[in-house]
Design brief:
The structure holds two protein chains of two kinds. Chain A has a single domain (22-184, 194-239), classed as Four Helix Bundle (Hemerythrin (Met), subunit A) (Up-down Bundle). Chain A has seven helices and two strands. Chain A has helices spanning 7-39, 53-80, 85-115, 123-149, 155-163, 166-176, 195-239; strands spanning 186-187, 190-191. In chain A, strand 1 (186-187) and strand 2 (190-191) form a beta hairpin. Chain A is globular. Chain B is an alpha+beta fold. Chain B has a five-stranded mixed beta barrel with strand order 1-3-4-6-5. Chain B starts with a helix and ends with a helix. Classes of the chains: A mainly alpha, B alpha+beta. At the A-B interface, helix 2, helix 3, helix 6 and helix 7 of A face helix 1, strand 6 and helix 3 of B.
């Protein structure tokens, strides 16, 4: 297990994997948005507003995937004391929060023409807003723990695992409870969405996911470089007798 | 550090954490189950019919706008329609501007209260679209025809 935990080995892989994910992600996401915004058909009832789906659904997926990443990294950190796990969790937080915010904003812009309201407090919208607040709380806690003892305490990891409870709640909110938001269109192996919408949507999800992976890898490299620089400064200060 | 104790400690942490997670998920599921009635955003017609809310209390009613039920009253601004969930039906009146997705055979969430005669008086209407996305080219087909075309082209 610790073979993969080696930061030097991670950096060797990340050096080429990061630009690959980033480049492919930007190319595919741009192509998918172009396809969705200009070439995909209008919807029978919703008309042109349906095009928001190509940004809204990938954002919702990555907002939730970001927290699943935090939870998986937290689990690895607590059980195996993996030196990269805490760094991976910190790297997931900001992009996850950004995509959650994009999901909420695009959803609100879509709700006005489709439903007739910017916002309702139904199960889906409320649990997604809770996810955004969980991200804010997690980032504050992780920064405080970093400032207090260099990130050695386990509070962010425990928060990361406990907060994961919200993810199935978001997913099942439209199934368990009557809600303004419709049930999922894409479920295991079948789609209530015609192929003309589904194909650019899946393409957009692939592109944004690669972009997300690229950002997480870039942030992990940056955090590692920051930690190395700090350690070097500390050694230098010690050797110069301050 | 002896390899044996290291693996043992790791194993212990894994078991403890898995137990903690199982308890946490069970607690969350219990809470969600307890909330199943309270966390719903609206009542469906069969709930309203079985357990009518007291007159004047603000509630939301959600369901499908029954086909053929939508009509405009003589004053030209009041509309009346029937909301159905397949099991029960509730008549609704509303005065105002409806969202553009509000059509017969589609979903609606009405905010308002029960009137004296068992009619639901809506103050606000929200359209609720379903999970089906159908291109405009198929708009003249019925729902079943469109579903058939979608299945054939998949």
């Amino acid at each position: 297990m610790h073979g993969f935990a080696n930061p030097a080995r991670f950096l060797r892989i990340a050096r080429w994997l990061m630009p690959l994910c980033m480049g492919a992600g930007i190319a595919i996401a741009t192509a998918a948005l172009g396809w969705g915004l200009f070439f995909a058909p209008a919807e029978r009832l919703q008309g042109e507003t349906v095009r928001i789906v190509y940004l809204h659904v990938p954002s919702a997926w990555l907002g939730m995937a970001g927290w699943m990443g935090i939870a998986a990294a937290s689990f690895t950190e607590l059980v195996w004391r993996h030196p990269l796990a805490g760094i991976a969790a910190r790297a997931c937080a900001v992009p996850g929060a950004v995509f959650t915010a994009v999901c909420l904003v695009t959803g609100s812009l879509w709700g006005r023409p489709a439903w007739g309201t910017w916002w309702v407090w139904d199960g889906r919208l409320t649990s997604m807003l809770v996810l955004l607040f969980l991200y804010f709380g997690w980032m504050a806690l992780s920064q405080a723990s970093e400032a207090a003892d260099g990130g050695q305490n386990k509070a962010p990891a425990i928060f990361g695992l406990v907060g994961a409870v919200n993810i199935p709640i978001i997913h099942y909110s439209v199934i368990w409870w009557q809600s303004q938001h419709q049930a999922p269109s894409i479920t295991m192996g079948k789609s209530a969405m015609a192929g003309a919408f589904l194909h650019p949507l899946l393409f957009a999800m692939l592109g944004f996911t690669l972009l997300f992976a690229g950002v997480v890898l870039a942030r992990m490299r940056a955090i590692l470089a920051h930690q190395q620089a700090e350690a070097r400064l500390r050694r230098k200060a010690l050797s110069e007798g301050y | 550090m002896a390899g044996g104790t290291g693996i043992k400690a790791k194993h212990q942490r894994l078991v403890l954490l898995v137990i903690a997670l199982v308890v946490l998920v069970a607690a969350a599921l219990l809470a969600a189950w307890a909330l199943r009635n309270q966390a719903s955003y609206f009542y469906v017609p069969s709930e309203i019919v079985a357990n009518p809310p007291e007159q004047g209390r603000g509630v939301r009613l959600g369901g499908m706008v029954q086909r053929g039920s939508l009509r405009t009253e003589a004053d030209g601004v009041t509309i009346a329609f029937v909301v159905s969930d397949g099991k029960a039906r509730v008549p609704v009146v509303f005065k105002g501007i409806v969202p553009s997705l509000f059509v017969e055979g589609s979903g609606v969430v009405a905010e308002g209260h029960m009137g004296a005669d068992g009619t639901f008086v809506a103050d606000n209407l929200l359209a609720k679209h379903d999970e089906n996305y159908v291109p405009r080219e198929m708009q003249n087909m019925t729902r079943d025809q469109a579903r058939q075309v979608m299945q054939d082209t998949k």
